[in-house]
Amino acid sequence: QVQLVESGGGSVQAGGSLRLSCAVSGYTFSRESMGWFRQTPGQQREGVASIQISTSYTTYADSVKGRFTISQDGTKNTVYLTMNNLKPEDTAMYYCALRVNGLRSLRPDSYGYWGQGTQVTVSS
Length: 124
What we know:
Distance between the termini: 41 Å
Strand content: over 45%
Oligomer: single chain
Helix content: under 10%
Number of helices: 0
Number of strands: 11
Largest sheet: 7 strands, mixed
Structural class: mainly beta
């Protein structure tokens, strides 16, 4: 059974940093993509970053380019989202997701497996 577990969320002040982790179990990395998404109450889930596991090629939303970095550790089946220079508008529940046999994408409907989320709160 595939499971994704996020960790690393918390509360920080604007300008601060956090690193989110997503540990994948029940699946071995090969041809998939992983993505990070975020959602605030009443809003649609938004793609933040995606990585192609086989090549480490990445894609970012314009709103986080230059501030967020997605990376992977294949030996640990773990994907990370390093978030620097955080802004209050980055406040959201952050989710990681797995897309089997697919290219990286920021579209939530491209992904079949999801974690439970980790909350990030940025205060001004």
